[in-house]
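Students often ask what a holo structure prediction actually looks like on paper. The answer is less mysterious than it sounds. You provide the chain, you provide the ligand, and the output is a string of C-alpha cells encoding the 3D arrangement of the protein together with flavin mononucleotide.
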Amino acid sequence: MTSSLYKPLEIGGVRIGGNLFAAPLAGYTDRAFRTVCVDNGADLCYTEMVSCEALVRGSEKTGELLMQADAEEVYAVQVFSGTADSAGRAVAMVAEHKPLLIDLNCGCPVPKIIKSGAGSDLMRDPDRVYDIVRAMKDNTDIPVTVKIRTGWDANSLNYLEVADSAVKAGAAAVTMHARTKKQAYGGVADWSHLKILKQELGDLPVLGSGDLFTAQDVRSMLEETGIDGVMLARGVIGNPFLFREAKHYLTTGELLDPPTPLEKMQTAFRQLELAVHYKDERTAVNEMKKQLCAYTKGLPGSSEARNRMVHSENFATYKEIFREYLESFS
Ligand SMILES: Cc1cc2nc3c(=O)[nH]c(=O)nc-3n(C[C@H](O)[C@H](O)[C@H](O)COP(=O)(O)O)c2cc1C
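The corresponding C-alpha cells follow.
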C-alpha cells in the first residue's frame, strides 16, 4: 500500500524520477546544501528564491543564486517578483541556466518582500498572479509552477482562487505551504486544505509543504491528502538524511536507523567543503554556522565544538575543530 506513495512525477511534460523535493529555503538551499540533499536521495531541489528585479538590474550576486550544482542532474529555480514586467524579463535570463522548472514564490511573509508586491502579497491579488505567470510563460518554454500559501489570514483562505488564476495562466503544478501568511511558520500547518486543492485541480500535480519533520510525517501527508509529492523544508536543515529515510519508509514501510553521529559530522563537513568550493571562504564559513549548529544539535559532547565553531572565521579552524571532535568518536 505504501509503495505507490513514492512515484515519479510529470510536470508540464517533464519527468522527475521521484516525488521527494527539497523546498526553496532562503539562506539555506545553496549549491552545497542541495548537493548533500541529492546525495541523500532528493529527487529535485529548488534554489533559494531569486529576485527578478535584481536579475534585471544585472546583480552579479543574485545571478550566482541561479547556478546549478555539479552533482545535480536537474534542479529548479524559484523566483519572486511583484510585477509581470520584471518577471517576464528575468525568466528569459533564468531560462539560460536550463532549470527543469521555474517556480514563482507567492508565499514569502517577509515585510520587505511583501512591500515590493511579491511573495505572499500575491495571495491578495489573484489577477496579478495570473499576469505574472502569463508573462513568465510568454518568455520561456520551461514549465512554470507556483508555490502558494492557504491565504493571507484565517479570514481569507483563497488558495483555490489563486491556484485557479495560476493554472489558467499556464502553471504546470501548484505547491502549497498549508499555512496562511499571518501564521508565518508558527502554529500547525492545516493539511486538510491540501486535500481540497488536489480534488479541485484533478490531474494537475499538487505538492505539499508544512510540518514535514519525519518519514512518518511525509507518509501521513501523502496518504491523508492524495497529493502527488512533497517538499521538505525545515525538516532537512542539518538533516538531509530525511530524504533517504522518507524514501525507504514509503517504499518498504520500514523505518531506517537514524544516521550515526559520525555520519552527521562527515556530512556537515562535506557541506562546508562544498560551500567553500562554491563561495569565498569567509562567506561560506559565516553562512554555514547556523547549519553546522543544526547538524550537531543533540550530539554527545557537541556543545564545546559548536561554541568554537560559532567563533571561528576560517576553514582551517573548522577543519581542526571537526578533526578533534571526530577523534572523540574513535
Ligand atoms: C528559513 C526559511 C526560508 C524559506 N525560504 C523560502 C523561499 O525562499 N521560498 C519559498 O517558497 N519558501 C520558503 N520557505 C518556506 C518553506 O519552503 C516551506 O514551505 C515552509 O518552511 C513550510 O515547511 P516546513 O513546516 O516543513 O518547514 C522558507 C522557510 C524557512 C523556514
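The mean pLDDT is 96.
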